[in-house]
């Protein structure tokens, strides 16, 4: 990948010019794929990560400064997207581990185990999008940001009882949506 003056192309790209995007994509795709392939934790994720890289390139094209080499800037963007991808996978793993480890302290073990099964199959995100905003924020803060229920109460400036209630109802809604999607089938020893 040559370090030419990419500024005009990136400016046009940030203004929605599809031709400029195609030009930048064609000039950088082999470089991007190679770097992603070597950095990604699972090689089969390289294509998905590449999509994330180009989405982020579209979002941040206007942040490129011509005084910096484009290749270095673009490599930084790629590395950040690979890290983000790894974090997403790690979060799902942590959800599963947290739910397994919290069995003794959980009052609603059945719901959390079902949530774990959902997370195991990478189906949490589409189901999460169907939740009402207040339920979604509780689940995201609890399982993606690793906040305690007490911390969530402080962040949202609501009583702890309200957080517990929303958490319980969010898990219940996720379970119901999962059951609707999978027709009550048995998964990981649990009947849904």
Automatic annotation (TrEMBL):
Keywords: DNA-binding, Sigma factor, Transcription, Transcription regulation. InterPro entries: RNA_pol_sigma-70-like, RNA_pol_sigma-70_dom, RNA_pol_sigma70_r2, RNA_pol_sigma70_r4, RNA_pol_sigma_r2, RNA_pol_sigma_r3/r4-like, WH-like_DNA-bd_sf. GO terms for molecular function: DNA binding; sigma factor activity. Coiled coil: none annotated. Belongs to the sigma-70 factor family. ECF subfamily. One of its GO terms (biological process) is DNA-templated transcription initiation. Pfam families: Sigma70_r2, Sigma70_r4. Gene3D superfamilies: 1.10.1740.10, Winged helix-like DNA-binding domain superfamily/Winged helix DNA-binding domain. It comes from Paenibacillus radicis (ex Gao et al. 2016). The keyword Transport does not apply. This is RNA polymerase sigma factor. Residues 25-91, 127-175 form the RNA polymerase sigma-70 region domain.
């Amino acid at each position: 990948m040559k370090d030419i003056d990419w500024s005009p192309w990136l400016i046009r790209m940030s203004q929605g010019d599809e031709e400029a995007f195609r030009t930048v994509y064609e000039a950088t795709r082999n470089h991007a794929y190679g770097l992603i392939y070597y950095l990604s934790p699972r090689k089969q994720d390289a294509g998905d990560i590449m999509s994330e890289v180009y989405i982020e390139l579209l979002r941040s094209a206007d942040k490129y400064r011509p005084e910096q080499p484009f290749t270095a800037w673009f490599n930084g963007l790629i590395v950040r997207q690979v890290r983000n991808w790894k974090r997403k996978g790690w979060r799902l793993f942590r959800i599963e581990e947290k739910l397994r480890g919290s069995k003794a302290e959980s009052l609603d073990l059945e719901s959390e185990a079902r949530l774990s099964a959902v997370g195991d199959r990478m189906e949490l995100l589409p189901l999460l999008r169907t939740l009402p905003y207040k339920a979604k924020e509780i689940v995201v803060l609890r399982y993606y940001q690793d906040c305690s229920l007490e911390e969530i109460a402080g962040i949202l400036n609501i009583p702890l009882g309200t957080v517990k209630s929303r958490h319980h109802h969010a898990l219940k809604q996720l379970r119901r949506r999962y059951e609707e999607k999978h027709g009550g089938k048995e998964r990981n020893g649990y009947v849904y």
